[in-house]
Amino acid sequence: MRQIYNHTRRQWQPQDILMGLQYGIVYMDNKHCEFGFFETSYEMVPIEIHNRLYYLFNKNCCTVPLYWMNSSNCYTTVQEYADNVKRRSNQNFNYPIGKNYNFCKISIPKNIILNEVDPEFEYIKQYTMGLEYETSCGNIPWLDCLKYNLVPLYDGSITGHEYVTFPMEYKEFNQIQTHLELLKTYTDYDKDCSLHIHFGGFPVQIPYIKKLMKYWNIFQNQIEQYLPEWCYQVENYKSNGKAYNRPYPSYFIFRSFYERTTGNKYVEDDGILYQPNRFDEDEIRKWEVHGRYFNMNIMHLISGECHKTVEFRFLHPTHNYYEIKWYILLLAAFLNFVQKNVDTKNNTISIEKVLESTYPADVCERILNEGVKLNHLRKVQMSNYDRAGIKFKMKNFYLQNVVNLQI
Fold first, then answer.
1. Per the domain annotation, does 107 fall within a domain?
2. Residue 68, exposed/middle/buried by CB under 10 A (0-12, 13-18, 19+)?
3. Residue 350 belongs to what domain range?
């Protein structure tokens, strides 16, 4: 039987395994290319040669400089061919990991990056965090995704990619600044995009989750003063008219909510929180899990074995680091307040008390002072007939040049 050389395993193998291998470039310099077979891997690099897409075995097998062609979502060795044209990109997925909806389905090692820690994040070190950045066009270079821990996912509700971070410890939260620079350089967003924040580390226990839902029913109304008027009614302006982050109704009872949204039978045992969601047991059809379409999504918390997070879904995309940081500090403090507070009647919940449960007085004062700017932005948006908060140029100019949001 004919043998082929597998460059991944560095050995000759029977030709009958050919279907499981990628044919691409195993060596390249400024004079010639050598082609061969290798196993599909995240280390592959998309590259266009003579108007045809190939994959490099890995970046080390190429000795010439690589330049990014944003419009084609791949690299080139010809500098004149490089561009930063931001086109609709959800149907042009040349990243070597294939189209995936779920971060759990992708195996990529995390790159360790040391950053200077913002001192405010020290107070919420008990939580991990992950962000989902939705885009409308453009492509972040694949090697930059690997370097800075961004994973591109497919999302049929937007015209670009969704870039997801690895779960981050508090010492890594500052990576967000690098992410935003990459997003600003290579992508853009529109009214159909959102920013989602996941927090890990909240207790996976029924009493705490019941209290979380109960407190959020009140707190969601209090933080509206810092958000656009239609922050919980995105169906009023999204292109497809779908309600992706509805407010929690006051009549929620955890038992009925659990059974209706997971398809599982409720018993008073924390073990039920790890059962698969019957509407998406393989975690490949997240849109079938209708319980996720609230402004706070706890589906990962009450079903499935991995990524036990609380997700907040109501934020607009932004390139302003301090805007994101402000919401991170507020929402993490809310989770901490839920864990610490023993008032079952929840009469004491307020923005001030939530912040005081986590931060010292000087940090609380700074957060509240910067919140005044976000509240004034809401009023500016309403006076300019922007109830959806989607006049992004006006918003960005206001935060950067008028009030200079800082925290």
1. no
2. buried
3. 119-402
- How would you write 331-361 as a 3-class SS string? HHHHHHHHHHCCCCCCCCCCHHHHHHCCCCH
Q: What is the 3-state secondary structure (H, E, C) of the chain?
A: CCEEEECCCCEEEEHHHHHHEEEEEEEECCCCEEEEEEECCCCCEEEEECCEEEEECCHHHECCCCEEEHHHCEEECCHHHCECCCCCCCCCCCCCCCCCCCHHHCCCCCCCCCCCCCHHHHHHCCCEEEEEEECCEECCCHHHHHHCCEEEECCCCCCCCEEEECCECHHHCCHHHHHHHHHHHHEECCCCCCEEEEEECCCCCHHHHHHHHHHHHHHHHHHHHHCCCCCCCHHHCCCCCCCCCECCCCCCCHHHHHHHHHCCCCCCCHHHHHCCCCCCCCCCCHHHCHHHCECEECHHHHCCCCCCEEEEEEECCCCCHHHHHHHHHHHHHHHHHHHHCCCCCCCCCCHHHHHHCCCCHHHHHHHHHHHHHHHHHHHHHHHCCCCCCCCHHHHHHHHHHHCCCCC
Query: Whole-angstrom Cα distance, residue 133 to residue 165?
Result: 8
- Would residue 97 count as lying in a domain? no
Q: At 198, give phi and psi (nearest 5°).
A: -105, 135
Same domain for 70 and 131: no
Q: Tell me how many domains the chain contains.
A: 2
Residuewise pLDDT in 10s, the chain (407 residues):
688 899 999 999 887 776 778 999 999 998 889 999 999 999 999 999 999 999 999 999 999 999 999 999 999 999 999 999 999 988 889 999 988 888 877 889 998 887 888 999 999 999 999 999 999 999 999 999 999 999 999 988 899 999 999 999 999 999 999 999 999 999 999 999 999 999 999 999 999 999 999 999 999 999 999 999 999 999 999 999 999 999 988 777 899 999 999 999 999 999 999 999 888 877 777 777 888 899 999 999 999 888 899 999 999 999 999 999 999 999 999 999 999 987 656 567 899 999 999 999 999 999 999 999 999 999 999 999 999 999 999 999 999 888 888 88
Q: Which of 33, 56, 81 is the last residue of a domain?
A: 81
* Domain boundary residue, one of 35, 56, 81: 81
Cα distance between residue 64 and residue 48, in whole Å: 14
